[in-house]
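Input sequence (109 aa), recorded before submission:
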Amino acid sequence: MSDDLELAALLGEAPKTPDPGFRFDVLALTAERARRRDARQRAFRTTVLFALVGLIFPLAHAFRLGLAQLQPLLLVAGVLCLAYVLALWTLEGPRAVLARSRAVLRGRL
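Predicted structure, token format:
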């Protein structure tokens, strides 16, 4: 991103003369777009996760499964979630000894 025309393609308009303020505006705009995109992805992921959790009990009721039959499955799911959170906490902690292994646990939807 060293050329003003390349930067103008990101913003939509080119300055008449080289302008440092223009470069700053383009970088600020692209950073804001990236923040918005990341926020939308986090919101989508959270919404999908809670929707799936909310569907567990109605689907179990539709298949005539009671709490007695679901309890072992929910216990295993809870233990797996706890292990995942603890693994992330260990990897991203203050010392982050296993920081290179972080990509293994990170997954995209």
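Checked by second reader. Residues 66-109 form one domain.
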